Amino acid sequence: MMLRTASALFALAALGGLIMAGMRFNGSPRPPSWLAMGHGLLAAAGLTLLIYAALTVGIPVMAQIGLGLFCLAAIGGAALNLLFHTKQLPLPIPLIIVHALLAVMAFAALLFGAFSGI
């Protein structure tokens, strides 16, 4: 149940991420702060729940891989926020793409682990 709840939180975070990426690719230098913070909050909640599940009840190997990739994506997201967004600088598109690719791979691994048990 925890993996499925974490998956739902990450799905909501992904929706916000898609909206923000679309805004940046359409020329906006950065998304509104409320959207960026909501995205980060949902992703952090999902990551926290995933870590808790891994440490208490254990999670399948694919979900563990997803957890590792989500940790890397979180570092990229924190860098985007702290180095660019909070300084009112345009978000670098290459870093957005790397962050998104890590998050998509992590989400796929989590879903596979959560719903197949592998």
Give a verbal description of the structure.
The chain is an all-alpha fold and 118 residues long. It is built from four helices and no strands. Helix 1 runs antiparallel to helix 2 and helix 1 packs antiparallel against helix 4. The radius of gyration is 14 Å and the shape is elongated.
Category from helices, strands and their pairing: mainly alpha
> What form results from the Cα inertia axes?
elongated
Query: Tally of extended strands?
Result: 0
> What is the CA–CA distance across the termini?
15 Å
Main sheet makeup:
none
- Unreliable segments of 5+ consecutive residues: none
Task: Please give the oligomerization state of what you see.
Answer: single chain
Percent helix, as a range, is over 70%
Integer average pLDDT: 96
Order of helices and strands: HHHH
**How many distinct helices?**
4
